[in-house]
Structures are given as C-alpha cells and as structure tokens.
Amino acid sequence: MTHAYTPGLRVADHTMVRRERRLPLKGEVLVTRGAQVRATDTVARTLIPGNVQTVNIANALGCDPCDVPKALALGVGTTVGKGDVIARRKGMFGLMESKVPSPARGILESCSEVTGQVILREPPMPVEVDAYIDGVVAEVMEGEGVVVETPAAFVQGIFGVGGETNGELAVAVSGPGEPLTPERLTPALAGKVVIGGSYVSFDLLKKAVSLGVKAVIVGGFDDRDLRELMGYDLGVAITGTENIGLTLVLTEGFGHMAMADRTFRLLSALAGKPASVSGATQIRAGVLRPEIVVPLAAEGGPRGDDRRSTGMEVGSLIRGIREPFFGRIGKVAELPPELAALETEAHVRVLAAEFDGKVSVVPRANVELIEG
Amino acid sequence: MIDNTSNGGSPTLKGPVRSILATDCGSTTTKAILIEQREGHYRLIVRGEAPTTVEAPFEDVTRGVLNAVKEVEELSGRTILDGDRIVTPQEGDRGVDLYLSTSSAGGGLQMMVSGVVKSMTGESAQRAALGAGAIVMDVIAANDGRRPHEKIQRIRSLRPDMILLSGGVDGGTVSHVVELAELLVAADPKARLGSQFSLPVVYAGNKDARSLIEDRLSSRVALSVTDNLRPTLEQENLGPARHEIHELFMEHVMQHAPGYPKLLSWTAVPVMPTPGAVGLIIEKIAKREGISVIGVDIGGATTDVFSVFQNVFNRTVSANLGMSYSISNVMAEAGLANILRWVPFDVDERDLRNRIKNKMIRPTTIPQTLEELAIEQAISREALRLAFEQHKSLAVGLKGVQQERTISDTFAQTQSGATLVNLAHLDLLVGSGGVLSHAPRRGQSALMMIAAFLPEGFTDLAVDSIFMMPQLGVLSTVHEHAAAEVFDRDCLVRLGTVIAPVGRGKEGQSSVRVKVEGPDGVKEAEVRFGDMALLPLPEDGEVRVRVTADPDRAFDLGAGKGKAVTREVRGGVVGLIVDARGRHPFELPADPKKRIERLRTWNRTLGIYPKEL
Questions:
Q1: Which residues of A2-21 are buried (b: 16+ CB within 10 A; e: fewer)?
Q2: What is the CATH number of domain A11-16+150-295?
Q3: How many Å apart are CA B399 and CA A149, to the nearest integer?
Q4: Where does B267-343 have alpha helices with state H?
Q5: What pLDDT shows up at residue B109?
Q6: How many CB pairs under 8 A join A and B?
Q7: Which residues in B147-169 are b (16+ Cβ under 10 Å) and which e?
Q8: Does position B251 have pLDDT exceeding 80, yes or no?
Q9: Regarding the domain delimited by A52-121, which CATH topology (the fold level of the hierarchy) does it fall under?
Q10: What percent of chain A has pLDDT over 70?
Q11: Helical residues (DSSP H) of B477-577, grouped into ranges
Q12: Residue ranges of the domains in chain A?
C-alpha cells in the first residue's frame, strides 16, 4: 500500500492522443484511414430520426377510434406537408365535412384503431461529427465514426463547462499565480484559447464571451460565479453541453488557485499553436476530465515522458487537494505504513509532507502526486 | 447445496451450511464477507475488499470478486480459491458451503416506468421498480403534463436497462395503456448496455389490454407479461412485477454486463441488485421482531431509504443525493442556508460553496480537521433529510391485496399526500454508508440521524458496522437463520435510544423527566425544552433496562399529552439521548449567534467532538 495515493491529472508535454469520434447512430464516414484532418473537418455524418408527433384523429373528428383508419385521407407511409389534410369525415347528411390538417411535414408512420391516433414522423435531422483535433485518421469504424490521433502536448483539467472548441493558445498573465485582469483581456484575444493564471471572475468571463474568446484555462473559479454563469446551481458534475459562449477549464479547483507550475510552463511554451479544448467533465465511473490538446505534428514523435504512473515515494512532489493544505505544494517526507489518528479522531493512512519547510501529517487521500 | 426445483422455484438448502462467502459488487468497491458457524452460531469472521473491475481496463467483475476473496483468505487464513474458482461446497477446511452475491456495479439497475395516471398506476409502478432495487430514471404517464412528442423525446434520450409498462385496472379502459405502448414504439428506445440486444419490457397493466400490447411490442422489444400491479383501484399487487423485474435483470441486463455470466455461474442463487437485497433484510427483520423500521444507506452518489410501517415495505432511492459525487446536488437541492444551520461556527458562504464543489471534483478526499468534519456532517444531515422527504412522499397508499382500502381512502391519500411513515410509531432507525458507519464517534452518527429524521417518542438507533446488509439480504433468501444471527451479532451496532417529546414549549420550561433503572442503579434527569441530555446505558444491545419518561402536559410521548411512558429499552454504545428540542415544529434559533451557541451546547452535552468548535 505504499503506492496508495490519488493519481494526479495528466500533464504531458509530448504524448500520443487518440480520440474516438463516433456518431450517435449508424451513418456515413467521410474520411479514409490515414487521411490528414483538421479539427474542424467533418469526419462522419448521419441522419437521426425526426421528431414524432401524435395527432388524435378520433378527438378531432369526434368519431370512435375504430373508425379512424377509414377516415384517413392518406395511407400510412405517405409523405405529407404541413397543413395537408390527413383525415376527414362527413357530418350528418353528408354536410359539414370535418378535416384534420397535418401539424408538420413528415411521414404518416402508423394509425391506431385503439387510441384513434396517428403518428407523424418529421423529416430526419442531419448530425455531423468533426475531427476535434488536427491529426491523422488512425482507424475507421465503418458506419460509426473514426479514431483521430496525433502526437500532442496534453493537459487534463479538474473541472470544465462548455463543449469542444479550438483556437490558438494565448497567455494573458505573466505567471501561474496571477489572476486574469481586465487590462490583459484585450480584443486581440478573440478566437483564442486564453491561459489565465490563478483565477477568473464572472465579470471577466462575460467580457471574454463578448470578445469572442473560445476558451479560458485558469487555476480556479468561484462556485458562486459558476452559478451566475450557468443560471443555476450545478448539482451533479456532468458537463460539456452547456451553451455559455465559451469553454472554461479549471486546472486546480474552486477558489483562487495558482495554476500548477508545470501546467503553466507547458501551456506558455506552446503559445501561438492551435489547441483543441473540451470542457466535458464527468466524475462518476468512467471519469471524464476536461482537456487541452495541442497537436505537435512531426516534431520528433512521442518521447514517452508522460511519467504518469510512477508511485509515491519519499521526496515525491505533491499537492494538497483538501483543506487545510488545499492547493499547497509540498514534498513527501515520510510514508508510515500504519494508520494514524487525525484531529477528527478518524484513523486513516497518512503521509508526512513538508510544506514550506514545515512537516505536517496529511491523509494520503488528500494529496495528489505532481508528476514529472 | 441449493435445490431450485422444489418449493415452487424458491431455493432450498440441502445439507449443512458451515461456511458462507458473500460478495457485494458496488460501483467502486467489491466487498466480501466470510461467515462461519462456530459453536452453533453463525458469525462474521472477516471482511475483505478490492476495487470493482467492471470498467476498463479489466471489464470483468469477477477479477474484483477474486481480489476481495483473496483478501478474505489472507485475513482468515482459510483457503477458499482454487486458482480462479471458488471451491464449493467446503472440502475439509477448503472452500465454503455457500457463495452468494449482490451487485450495483455499473450504475445498478436503471429503469423507466410508466402508468396511465401519474399518482396512481404511475406511482405503483414506481414503487414496484424501486422495491426491486432499481433506480427510476423517469415516470411517463398519460397525464404527466408533457406533450406526446416530449414524452417520445424523453424515452428516446434515456437508455434504461428495462421498462415497466403499467396502466389501467383490470376490466377498465384499454386505450390509455395502448397509447403508452404506441409511444414506446414510436420512440424505439435502446438498452443502456448495447443497442444490439432487445430492451426488456415488463407489462403489468390492465389484463384486457395484453393482446393489444403484445401486437404492438412483441416484435420490437423483449416483452414479458405479468399480473396487473393495480388490478383494482383499491388494490396494489407489486409482487409479480417485482419478481419479473428480478428475472429479467438476471436474464438480460446481467448477461450483458462485463464478467457477469461467469459470476452468475458461481453463485448458488441469482445475483440480486444491492438495494433489493438491503430491502429484503430490513423487511425480514421488521417482520421477525414485529416492529416498524427505517433503514438508510447514504453513499457517495445516492441515498436509499427503506421503511416498513404497518407491515408495508417501501424503498426509495434519491439518485443524486450523496456525500461525494452528488454532494454539490445536496447543496443545490437543500439550499446553502439549510446546510449552514447545522454548522456550529461562522463560515463564509463563498468559502463553503467552494469547499463543497472541491469535494465533488475530488470525491475521494476525507475531512482532516474537525471543522471539515463538522461541515460534512452538516451536509449529510441535509442529504438524509431530503432523501427521507422523498421517501415519505412515495411511501404512501397501499400494497398487496391484503391491504385493501376503500376507494374514498385512495382518493384521500392521493389528495392529501398522506404517508405511511409515522415517526411516532417508528421502533428502529438503522443508518449505513460511510458518513454514518465510519463517523469517528458513534454519537455523531446518532445526532446526524436524529437531526435528519426527527424521530418522535421512543426510537432505537443503530448503524450497520461495515455495511454488510446487502450480503445478509441475499443470504436471507436461502438461510434466514444465518442472516438473522449475523445481522444481530455482527452487523448492527446499537447506539441506544432517543426519546423525543412531541410538542412545543417555552425555552427553559420543563419538557420531560426521565428515569433509567439499569443494572448500575437508578438515574434520573429533568430535561428542559430546547435542551438535549445523555444518560448512560449498558453498551451491550442485548441488555435491556427500564426507562420511564414523564412528559410535561404540553408534550406527548405517544400515550397522550402529559402521559408517562415506561419501556424496556436495549443498551447501546452512545446511551439514552433525550431530545427536548420539540417536534411539530422542530426549530433552530433564527439568530445565527444564538443558533451556533445552541449547536455547541448540544454537541458538548452529547460529547460529539473532542474539542469545542
């Protein structure tokens, strides 16, 4: 159990990134294996079945449901336009014909003599999937989608909102501990993926949206501001479909949090390069974290220095991920095997960590390893 | 060891059972327990655990099971495995006589249910699915206020494991339930675990509509038809639908989950959904003792509440109330003010919001400081309270044909929302899940449960020591005696009894006088309105003492206002808690300073924390 620790988020300066781009339903793949694709290229498309509307003919005509099939003006399977008469019935003595117009364009899918309803299916809707990252089509899943891969610098965030986007990386602060400020958020950042240091406020994020910034990557953000941004309190951490005008990725957590030095250095070094960003986060089983992918094309190939899965040892660099050491960077001083009592009186596995020259005991569950 | 052919399909045991291995494959951890018969009694010997291996890269639940069993082997010194095989029956000292399992891995059993009238067949269908251990993703009803295309859209977007279709009383109109079936056809829903296999659909509605339902659905889904769960307006018959859900869970859902076909070949009886098994043990204990019980299991993502009142079992699951993944949703649903009211010190709202979100995004972290612990325990009170509110709103109405009510009762219940849950009649409240089972002091668990459930009169409190109720639940289907023995001796930690007079008084006014006559003599206390008190009890839950509580004339302990009540109560590790803070209403001081002062006083009285916060 000496390796009991929370694995850190991935920060790799050169790794191979593969992303599956799958259609929601079977469809058509538009690219071939080995093709070079840009992030915005459409790689597959399909048609998803249209909306379904029910039309209660029996109610509209005032007849029994069993009489509805006879009242249909058009057969099941017919294509109809909006307003086309789909059923009619003559009144008493053949006078005053009642008609039922179609509420939408579509196909008459079925008719029920039990409920007196017809089901009208609207035309199918096209859905397209783009490549998301600049890269090569490594695999084609016939009728379903593709896998795009590229050597890239790769940074995982801890939490994000907003979907996939892309733009040129731009650094708008001078250090990882510096918050994004109004003076640094200039119109020149329109269309860019902005690296913002330790913190961004809601007002500034609004300004970024109005400027046309594609994404903001920062260490921390206030939950109070997240509520303002989304318009409601986020309950369960399943994100990625929000329509908030940009994508926000937090690399550290909630509050004012200096961006991890390595993350900041890596992203700063890549300023000017195109990046793909996703805010999608899902913390339950099958953990999905937000990410920044910066394709590195033929620049020597992956060096395999991801260093993600090394264990925790004395001397390992760690970060506190819970109060009272939240966000503090330290070094492992000791890894005692036995359980120790905390102030809460809970007995848990701990480590001794040196934060700013002072050794403190911390539950192992409350630190993460800083790799590399 | 098991004969499934006799007794109408219920499993019966053949031969003696000397040892039992039972696993529960949870969404994150697989827990194994070893039970042995020693000196004529079944006892828990050891417990082992290992990470669940349903997800990539393993995608085989049996890996996690074998790892947990290996830990059991190491801790007990007993050989159970022969390679990757569990040795059954026991051969000499090797192996075990019985192996059983429950599972909630991969998100458990997720269902969509439908009924014609939301508050009648819709609610009955919901109770049937919940009782079978499912998470109900949505209730689609003819009168649920959504337009047909919205319902179709919803059905299509959900990917349930199974659908329960009900509606109409036998002999009643068929058109509404047929309409629901037609919506299903139009939506063409896909199963969660793969679109290549047919989605199981249970039809338990108006029997006159069966052929119409079969015409519409049998070629499109894996349809199975069972008895109407609401044969008449005043009868509810959930048993057949629950049974069918369990069968289809085994036949369809489990067969497509990674590694489950192998697991199913190992177990002596079918793998049960975890909450279904917990419900079963609670139901059996209530029946055996003839008592009313509430059980609660608060996890990281969900909170389950089980109750048995008037012999009626109910279970609800609050899918998004929990202490890690769902902690932020507790704040969203309860509101920050409701969480803050339980925190015995000043907290900055912005800081608290950030702390809660940080726990959500790093769900495996634990409180290191007392302040952090107190905040988590404040949040848990609200999670438990909300889950209980949801439970009360669904634990209404009737169950089974033996529980007939008149039609007027039925309408009265629907209109008033009257619940079966009556706290004045509650005998035992059992808590389970990390925040309750692993609280550093047992008094903390007691106080959390009291604050969330607000029991009235006399109520016994207990926690499940290591959360083994699921395994004991499935064990109870084949060996009720062993399950009951282990439940009493090793599973339940009896905390003591809470006495809570119902009524309202003035601060400082006498509320109740309590006398405890135990083996160590007589102890008496007078408790004033707004205060709490703790009187020692023998720690052993098997020891009983005589307690007399004499309330002031404004207060009621179940016998009427001002009437004394004498009871034999069990011992417990916390003791006898007298809660004179009032009920109906229970109120905390509105003034923050005064509220914090009161919280601190109660914490001090009950010795909740090692130091003042």
A1: eeebbebbebbbbbbbebeb
A2: 3.50.30
A3: 57
A4: 274-289, 327-334, 336-340
A5: 82
A6: 164
A7: ebbebbebbbebbbbbbbbbbbb
A8: no
A9: OB fold (Dihydrolipoamide Acetyltransferase, E2P) (2.40.50)
A10: 92
A11: 480-486
A12: 11-16+150-295, 52-121, 317-369
CA dist B546 and B538 (Å) reads 12
Between B300 and B291, whose confidence is greater?
B291
Residues in A touching B610 (Cβ below 8 Å):
343, 345
Among A118-122, B535-539, B546-550, which is the least confidently predicted range?
A118-122
Residue A124: pLDDT band with limits 50, 70, 90: confident
CB contact under 8 A, A283 and B329: no
Q: What residues of chain B, 236 to 295, have a C-beta less than 8 Å from chain A?
A: none
Radius of gyration of chain A measured on its C-alpha atoms: 28
State how far residue B301 is from chain A, nearest Cα, in angstroms: 8
Answer yes or no: do B440 and A119 touch at CB < 8 A: no
Question: Which pLDDT belongs to residue B403?
Answer: 42
Chain B: give the shortest CA distance to residue A326, in Å.
9
**SS3 label, residue A102:** coil
* Sign of the Cα pseudo-torsion (B603, B604, B610, B613, in order): positive
Give the pLDDT mean for A245-265: 93
Q: What is the pTM of this model?
A: 0.85
Position B56 scores a pLDDT of 63
Q: How far is A222 from chain B (nearest CA, A)?
A: 6
Q: Does A1 touch chain B (CB under 8 A)?
A: no
Cβ distance A114 to B212 less than 8 Å, yes or no, reads: yes
Whether A52-121 and A11-16+150-295 are alike in CATH topology: the answer is no
Mean pLDDT value across residues B60-64: 90
Which residues between 116 and 135 in chain B have a beta carbon less than 8 angstroms from any beta carbon of chain A? none
Query: Do the chains contact at B366 and A322, CB–CB below 8 Å?
Result: yes
B361 lies within 8 A of chain A by CB: yes
pLDDT digits (tens, 9 = 90+) for A315-355: 998 989 999 998 888 999 999 988 899 999 999 989 999 99
Indicate the domain borders of chain B: 2-104, 108-262, 293-606
Task: Give dist(CA B475, CA A168) in Å, integer.
Answer: 60
- In the 8-state DSSP scheme, what is residue B527? E
Q: Which CATH code for domain B108-262?
A: 3.40.50.2300
**B406/chain A closest Cα distance in angstroms:** 30
Q: Which of residues 193-232 of A touch B (CB under 8 A)?
A: 222-224, 226, 232
CB contacts of B365 in chain A (<8 Å) are 6, 321-322, 363, 365-366
Tens of pLDDT, residues A271-311: 999 999 999 998 765 578 999 999 997 655 445 444 444 57
- The CATH T-level fold of domain B2-104 is Nucleotidyltransferase; domain 5 (3.30.420)
Structure tokens at A181: 């400020």
Residue A287 sits at the chain B interface (C-beta within 8 Å): no
Q: How far is B484 from chain A (nearest CA, A)?
A: 30
| H-state helical runs in B335-369 | 336-340, 349-361
- Is B355 within 8 Å of chain A by CB? yes
Residue B110, min C-alpha distance to chain A (Å): 15
